[in-house]
Every structure is written in C-alpha cells, then in structure tokens.
Design a protein that fits this description.
- The chain has a four-stranded antiparallel sheet. It has a three-stranded antiparallel sheet with strand order 1-2-3, with no helix packed on it.
- The radius of gyration is 15 Å and the shape is globular.
- It starts with a strand and ends in a 13-residue tail after the last helix.
- By secondary structure, it is an alpha+beta fold.
- It has helices at about 25-35, 95-110; strands spanning about 5, 10, 20, 40-45, 50-60, 70-75, 80-85.
- It has one domain (about 5-110).
C-alpha cells in the first residue's frame, strides 16, 4: 500500500473518496482523527536549490492513557529525528511547514559541520 502523500495543499491517497483532500479543511482533520489513518509523507522542499530534497514521515501515535497525537520522523545523518506535532487539530499546513524549516536548518548545520542540539519546535504554530 502506497503512503498518502502531500502535494501542495492536498493529500493524495487511493483510499480517499475523491483520491485527495485539502489540508486544513474539516475533511482533513476528520481524516487525521480516523483510526485508519496512521501515517503520511510530507515533502521537504528546499527553496534555495528549488527542489524536494526528501520527505518526512508523519505518524499517528497513541499514549498509554488513551490520548492520540502526531509526530514527524526524519533521518538526519545517522540519527532518527522525532518532532512532536500534537493532536490532530494541531496538524496544520503552517505547522508542517514550520517543521520543514526546522529540519532544513538542521540539515544545513550538518552539512556545514556546525550542528548543535536540535531546535525545540514545541512552541511553533
């Protein structure tokens, strides 16, 4: 089964009724809250070079006490980076783009050899 993928402001998946739905719409948040939605792929578009340099995987996870939340996973060099997004209502296009910016800054620091501690993105909207 192919992973649902974001392109522009829509998610595309053969499992969706119309094959796609718009980010930040009521249908988007309902899709994120559905038990059958476990993950999707989001592109890392680097404007400095003008193309997609990779993808981050966004996963639906459950807490031991029954809560549910979303997190981003992306391999940066030898390490697997995890960034907490929050509940389905917090997974907006703006929030996903803020995480992309964070990951691109961390990638640039790795390339320059000046990598430091990962940036705390918990307060990014």
């Amino acid at each position: 089964m192919k992973l649902p993928t974001i392109e522009g402001i829509s998610v595309y998946s053969p499992e969706l009724p119309d094959g796609r739905l718009r980010l930040d719409s009521p249908a988007w948040f309902a899709w994120l809250s559905a038990a059958s939605t476990t993950r999707f792929s989001y592109p890392l578009y680097d404007r400095s070079c003008g193309y997609i340099i990779g993808f981050m995987t966004v996963r639906h996870e459950r807490r031991q006490r029954g809560g549910q939340y979303w997190s981003v996973y992306r391999r940066q060099g030898p390490r697997l980076r995890k960034i907490y997004l929050g509940p389905p209502s917090a997974v907006t296009h703006a929030r996903l783009e803020a995480v992309v910016v964070t990951l691109l800054h961390e990638r640039a620091a790795l390339v320059r050899g000046t990598a430091q501690r990962p940036i705390d993105t918990s307060d990014i909207v």
